[in-house]
């Protein structure tokens, strides 16, 4: 049996961390969306062995139990009470450790695919419960559609589709450690973006209200160590984006444009300044299978 599925990157349009729980885990309030930029994952069952084997075309990825796709498959088999041999091949198009949730999306795509392949009938909520054991973005990625995410990442409330818009992404050539950034949340006073206003903008399909209310609590922390992020954000605006901000814990920043022609202009300009740039639209298909 063989399936090829698409695992889209995510963007955090709004990211608030209202408080840190006593156990150190973070309470999130995030508005997330998925975009066209995607990894492709082939999952093939094998009768010759009972291991989960990971292959990828990226030298940046672990191909053992540290791979989030491996962890998702193992947890899936624990949940359903059987196990078969699998070969999971990842074509990596989403930059790694970029704030774009590539690993979480690969894990979620594996959960969705295995549920379909073995007709195990788990709901998205059940897949999200498995996913949160991998990391806090996997529940969102199970849905991979515009949603409000809260709790420790396990509460996903799907929202109306975004109105028509385009994203231009630019990844500065710096490495960011997510655990280091998240640890600082407990001791740093950060701003809290207006998530409710952002939700109202989406509900009313009001492009200007959405753009005016994006925001990311982690941006101040990450930017303090990597000023290039601020420079890229300003350039996106200078080149014509209506709004810009960092995604997740960074370092990727994105600009928002209303039209494709404007987005192409911003993309062409930023490409001369940053060699990892992408142009993408919000993902419309909630759980894409190729
Ligand atoms: C910040 C976000 C927003 O979408 O995006 P990314 O930057 O990952 O894309 C994610 O929620 C992020 O999710 P994820 O990377 O899954 O984070 P988690 O699993 O919660 O934690 C990542 C790592 O940080 C560590 N961690 C977490 C919280 C904390 N107070 N101190 C920590 O050291 C965890 O132990 C884990 O090793
Ligand atoms: N399938 C995978 N794709 C990407 N990263 C993975 C994967 N499996 C494990 N990882 C590890 O997870 C970490 C986070 O990667 P990623 O999900 O791309 O970034 P982010 O959390 O910034 O959105 C990296 O250190 C990477 O080595």
UniProtKB/TrEMBL annotation:
MF terms in GO: 4-(cytidine 5'-diphospho)-2-C-methyl-D-erythritol kinase activity; ATP binding
Q: Does the keyword ATP-binding apply?
A: yes
The UniProt keyword set, sorted, is: ATP-binding, Isoprene biosynthesis, Kinase, Nucleotide-binding, Transferase
Which terms does the UniProt entry file under GO BP?
isopentenyl diphosphate biosynthetic process, methylerythritol 4-phosphate pathway; terpenoid biosynthetic process
Binding annotation for ATP: 95-105
Q: Which N-terminal residues, if any, form the signal peptide?
A: none
Superkingdom in the source lineage: Bacteria
Q: Does the keyword Kinase apply?
A: yes
Q: Where is the GHMP kinase C-terminal domain?
A: 199-273
Its UniProt entry gives the catalysed reaction(s) as: 4-CDP-2-C-methyl-D-erythritol + ATP = 4-CDP-2-C-methyl-D-erythritol 2-phosphate + ADP + H(+)
| Name of the top EC class for this enzyme | transferase
The active-site annotation reads 10, 137
Q: Where is the GHMP kinase N-terminal domain?
A: 67-144
Q: Any idea what job this protein has?
A: Catalyzes the phosphorylation of the position 2 hydroxy group of 4-diphosphocytidyl-2C-methyl-D-erythritol.
Protein's UniProt name: 4-diphosphocytidyl-2-C-methyl-D-erythritol kinase
């Amino acid at each position: 049996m063989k399936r090829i599925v698409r695992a889209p990157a995510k963007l955090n349009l709004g990211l608030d961390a209202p408080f840190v729980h006593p156990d150190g885990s973070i309470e999130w309030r995030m508005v997330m969306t998925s975009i066209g930029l995607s990894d492709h994952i082939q999952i093939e069952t094998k009768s010759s062995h009972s291991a989960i084997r990971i292959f990828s075309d990226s030298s940046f990825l672990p191909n053992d139990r540290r791979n989030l796709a491996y962890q998702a498959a193992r947890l899936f088999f624990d949940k359903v009470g059987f196990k078969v041999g699998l070969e999971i091949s990842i074509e990596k198009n989403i930059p790694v450790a970029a704030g774009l949730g590539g690993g979480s999306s690969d894990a979620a795509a594996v959960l969705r695919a295995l549920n379909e392949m073995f007709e195990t009938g788990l709901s998205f909520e059940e897949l999200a419960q498995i996913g949160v054991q991998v990391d806090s973005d996997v529940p969102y990625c199970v849905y991979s559609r515009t949603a409000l995410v809260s709790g420790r990442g396990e509460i996903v409330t799907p929202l109306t589709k975004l109105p028509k818009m385009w994203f231009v992404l630019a990844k500065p050539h710096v490495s960011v450690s997510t655990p280091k950034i998240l640890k600082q949340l407990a001791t740093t006073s950060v701003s809290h973006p207006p998530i409710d206003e952002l939700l109202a903008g989406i509900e009313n399909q009001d492009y200007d209200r959405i753009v005016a209310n994006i925001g990311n609590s982690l941006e101040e922390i990450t930017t303090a160590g990597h000023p290039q992020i601020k420079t890229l954000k300003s350039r996106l605006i200078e080149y014509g984006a209506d709004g810009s901000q960092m995604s997740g814990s960074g370092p990727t920043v994105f600009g928002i444009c209303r039209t494709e022609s404007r987005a192409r202009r911003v993309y062409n300009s930023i490409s001369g300044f940053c060699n990892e740039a992408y142009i993408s639209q919000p993902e419309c298909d909630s759980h894409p299978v190729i």
